[in-house]
Amino acid sequence: LDRPIPRARTWGRFRLHDLMGELVAGFDAKSRLQEWCQGRGITLPAYRLLSSEGPPHAKTFRVEVSVAGRPPARGSGRSKKEAEMAAAGEILSRLAAAGEGA
User: Fold this and answer.
1) How far is Cα 47 from Cα 77, in angstroms, rounded to an integer?
2) At residue 21, does pLDDT exceed 70?
3) HEC profile for the chain?
4) What's the pTM?
5) Which of 9, 20, 29, 73 suits a disulfide with 91, CB 3.0-4.6 Å?
6) β-strand partners of 61
7) Adjacency order of strands within the sheet including 60-66
8) Please, which residues have CB within 8 angstroms of residue 79's CB and are 6 or more apart in sequence?
9) Angle between helices 29-40 and 80-97 (to 10 degrees)
C-alpha cells in the first residue's frame, strides 16, 4: 500500500509466477503421465521393476513404464519411486517431442 501501483503490480506478478511454479512442481511425472492417459481414455501406465542392484544401503533400481500404443521407457534411481518418476519423465519427454502434449 505504500508503493506506487505499477511497482505493486510488478511485485504481484513475480509473486504469482513463484506460486504457480510451486503448484506445477507439485505435480510429479507419475501423476502427469496418469492424467495424460486418463485424458485420452487409455489404460493407465504400468510400471515393472527390471532390477535392483548394489548393497542394501545404496541400491540402484531400474524400472520400465508402459503406456498403450507407445514404446516403453526406462528410468533408474535410488528408490523404486525415484526410478518410476524417471521412467515417467522419460516417456513424457517423448510424448512432448512427438507433439502429443504431455
Assistant:
1) 14
2) no
3) CCCCHHHHHHHHHHHHHHHHHHHHHCCCHHHHHHHHHHHHCCCCCEEEEEEEECCHHHCEEEEEEECCCCCCEEEEECCHHHHHHHHHHHHHHHHHHCCCCC
4) 0.72
5) 73
6) 52, 77
7) 46-53, 60-66, 73-77
8) 61
9) 50
Give residue-wise pLDDT tens across range 28-87. 899 999 999 999 999 999 999 999 999 999 999 999 999 998 999 999 999 999 999 999
- Does residue 72 contact residue 65 with C-beta atoms inside 8 Å? yes
Cell of 86: 524417471
Q: How far apart are CA 14 and CA 47, in angstroms?
A: 38
Give me 65's grid cell.
513404464
Res 1 pLDDT > 80: no
